[in-house]
Amino acid sequence: MGRTGVLLLNLGGPEQIDDVRPFLFNLFSDPEIIRLPFPWLQKPLAWLISSLRSKKSQENYLAIGGGSPLRQVTEAQAVALQDNLKEKGQPVGIYIGMRYWHPFTEEAVARIKRDRIDDLVILPLYPQFSISTSGSSFRLLEKLWQEDPSLNRINYTVVRSWYEQPGYLQAMAQLIAEELDQFSNPDEVTIFFSAHGVPVSYVEEAGDPYQKEIEECTDLIMQTLNRPNPHVLAYQSRVGPVEWLKPYTEDAIQELAAEGVNNLLVVPISFVSEHIETLQEIDIEYREIAEEAGIHNFRRVPALNTHPVFIEALADLVVDALNSPKVLLSEVTQMKKKVKMYPQERWEWGLTPSAEVWNGRLAMLGLIALLIELISGHGPLHLVGLL
Ligand SMILES: C=CC1=C(C)c2cc3[nH]c(cc4nc(cc5[nH]c(cc1n2)c(C)c5CCC(=O)O)C(CCC(=O)O)=C4C)c(C)c3C=C
Ligand SMILES: [Fe+2]
Ligand SMILES: [Fe+2]
Questions:
Q1: Taking the model in full, what pTM does it have?
Q2: How would you list the strands of the sheet with 297-300, edge to edge?
Q3: Which of 79, 88, 126, 373 could form a disulfide with 379 if both were Cys (CB 3.0 to 4.6 A apart)?
Q4: What are 330-350's pLDDT values in tens digits?
Q5: Which residues are noted in the entry as Fe(2+)-binding (predicted)?
Q6: Helix (H) or strand (E) holding 232
Q7: For residue 194, is pLDDT > 70?
């Protein structure tokens, strides 16, 4: 019998405060995160934005203890998943491949190769697919496979997204129910799903299925929960000057407060581990906004982390993937026809008026920001909220 492996894909996060700047540089160097018309502009702009954003970002990480818990949580998930699969009679080696920080995806693939893994399940720790998350990791893996033909001996399969998985929905519903029952009037609480946002252009121009998957996921969780509560969906963590998916979480909280809502349960929906955007953005920033707007009973559902029902769901996903027809990286990196900017090197220039505007805007932004901010120490990136 061959050796089986599971490659868990995740984003990664700075483990200490000095990691923040190089982490941000890695993140903004990714064309799936900032899509620029000219590849040569990517690294200078990544350097500029990471240098200028790092102070504010460091303050946020300091507010949660000086670093992201993402590596520790992901490692604990890996151990729990491995134990679960062993109990099911399916021993596997688990590998963690982070996109922007240690342990990097490249290191994980090198270990998979060294361990002579025969069958591999590639499982992103993002329930819903986005070009900017799972898509970015899949593209990196596709590149690694293209660069090293010896990897072709590995019989791999990819799990593209898994927001409909019943065990995952059960685990989410269970966590929400437990938190609802902490309120004195559980049925009157508004359930507020807060998903990580993406720029509108990802969905409307690049065909990112993320918004659709988030909406379906929210509905499925509400069906599984089977409670009478009203619910809303909003998008958090906007970065930069372009329009992101709406409503924005901060606006939606204020609107609900204006409508007289006083009991709010926030459910982070696009990520399965505690991270800066649950611990700092929701627990500190959004709580403050809510309280100032008059919402006095504000709670948040914890991230799934190593919740046993969730780990069981991941194990089921692995077993199902091993017993199903193989899904190749080339299948999950293909976006629908007429997608114009993905990947960067295959952009079709000026095909539509909006492409021209978008490309020109970003190029101008990068160059002008670079010049003005380098000379003056102040500039448009501050004004548009990048810094
Ligand atoms: C499904 C989840 C996520 C999506 C979609 C996503 C898109 C996205 N993110 C940025 C910019 C930043 N993301 C940052 C950190 C970060 N983002 C996610 C998840 C999603 N991002 C996670 C889990 C983390 C790491 C958190 C941690 O604990 O360290 C950051 C750095 C933090 C900060 O300075 O705010 C940035 C910047 C963009 C531009 C984007 C879509 C295009
Ligand atoms: Fe992000
Ligand atoms: Fe973010």
A1: 0.89
A2: 231-236, 190-196, 263-268, 297-300
A3: 373
A4: 999 976 433 333 333 333 333
A5: 196, 277
A6: strand 231-236
A7: yes
pLDDT, tens digit (0-9, with 9 covering 90-100), for 72-81:
999 999 999 9
Q: What's the CA gap between 253 and 248, in Å, rounded? A: 9
pLDDT for the residue numbered 347: 34
Environment class of 345 (CB within 10 Å of its CB; exposed 0-12, middle 13-18, buried 19+): exposed
* Triad 147, 151, 156: Cα angle to 5°: 120
| CA of residue 218 to ligand 2 center, whole Å | 20
The mean of the pLDDT values for the chain is 90
277 a known binding residue?
yes
CA of 196 to the centre of ligand 1 (A): 8
With a 6 A CB cut-off, is 35 part of the ligand 1 pocket? no
DSSP code of residue 225: H
Could you report the per-residue pLDDT of 151-190, keeping only the tens digit for each?
999 999 999 999 999 999 999 999 999 999 999 999 999 9
Contact 342, 203 (CB under 8 A): no
How many CB atoms are located within 10 Å of the residue 237 CB?
17
Q: Residue 310 is inside which H or E element, if any? A: helix 308-322
Is residue 162 within 8 Å of residue 127, measured between CB atoms? yes
Instruction: Quote the CA–CA distance of 303 and 69 in Å, as a whole number.
Output: 12
Cβ–ligand 1 distance for 52 under 6 Å, the answer no
Strand stretches in 90-183, DSSP E = 93-98, 119-124, 155-158
From ligand 3's centre to the CA of 126, what distance in Å?
14
